[in-house]
Please model this.
Amino acid sequence: MTLEQPIEYRVNGVRQTEIHEAGVINFADGVRSMLRHDPDVILIGEIRDEDTAKMALRASMTGHLVLATIHASCPFVAPARLIDLGIAPNLLAGQILAVVCQELVRTEEGRSAKAEIVEFSEEMHLLVGDGANSAKLKIAHLST
Model:
């Protein structure tokens, strides 16, 4: 099941729902509705408000795999962005499996995607729970 704004690619066998800003359903309502269907995986096109962040966290805490995008300058900033959106650090700790950061860079051939994948260690989860900043998360990641 997906919530997207807009749906960019149709995927066979996946229930995709497009969210409209002025529409009846928003991202948080969509996640709430999805949870009633008990899906294994939920994809949220973008976490951009407190309600959506809280519903995504609730889904992850009840055993669903939640894949979502959030605007952050690097993988280590993602937890801080969620905390800024109203997620309590102690609830967020242990819920992030990994963060993939993607950036489009100019090359001689045009543009290319550069990606970084950061798996969160137990030490990083403890730091998130304490509300640590991105620099401390990066240091913990580099030391593992």
About this structure: The radius of gyration is 16 Å. Strands lie at 2-4, 16-18, 41-44, 65-68, 98-107, 110-119. Residues 103 and 109 are 16 Å apart (CA to CA). The longest strand covers residues 98-107.
